[in-house]
Inverse folding.
């Protein structure tokens, strides 16, 4: 079990529900550059699907689809899978920061809290996929210490599978 409250000392972090979908869509629509490099779209149907989609061998008990809030304002969305693809690894399925906060270091600060929490929870690694060709995503995750492992298929697209060691 991951203590998502410890992801941030500054923000309130909680699991998102279907009632939060309009706020998630708003944050996502504020980031059109991200969607230029993927077939995913920032609409309610896609977000609803993301809320419940788990990788093979995982279920909703292992999924932490979280909102990072300042008061009632949704500032970021992060999807963390506990123990995927193995028990020593947490998988970040999605991270989106509100456009107005980008470039301020807030995304990195939020992620540093996530890394600390995952490390204290016993994880040795964090993995994620990066859309190929997206310069903003590639730069952000490289700055956050992720290294490319290999190209991987995702539907009809290819992505970079990347990993960060937490030890």
């Amino acid at each position: 079990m991951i203590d998502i409250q410890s992801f941030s000392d500054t923000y309130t972090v909680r699991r998102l529900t279907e009632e939060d979908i309009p706020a998630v869509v708003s944050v996502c629509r504020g980031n059109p550059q991200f969607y230029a490099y993927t077939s995913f779209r920032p609409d309610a149907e896609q977000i609803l699907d993301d809320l419940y989609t788990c990788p093979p061998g995982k279920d909703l008990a292992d999924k932490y689809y979280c909102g990072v809030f300042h008061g009632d304002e949704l500032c970021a969305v992060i999807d963390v899978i506990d123990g995927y693809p193995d028990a020593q690894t947490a998988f970040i399925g999605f991270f989106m920061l509100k456009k107005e906060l980008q470039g301020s270091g807030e995304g990195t600060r939020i992620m540093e809290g996530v890394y600390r929490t995952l490390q204290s929870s016993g994880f040795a690694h964090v993995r994620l996929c990066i859309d190929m060709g997206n310069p903003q995503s590639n730069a952000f995750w490289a700055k956050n210490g992720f290294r490319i492992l290999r190209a991987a298929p995702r539907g009809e697209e290819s992505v970079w599978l990347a990993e960060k060691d937490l030890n």
About this structure: Helices lie at 21-29, 32-35, 44-52, 106-120, 135-143. The chain has a mean pLDDT of 95. The longest helix spans residues 106-120.
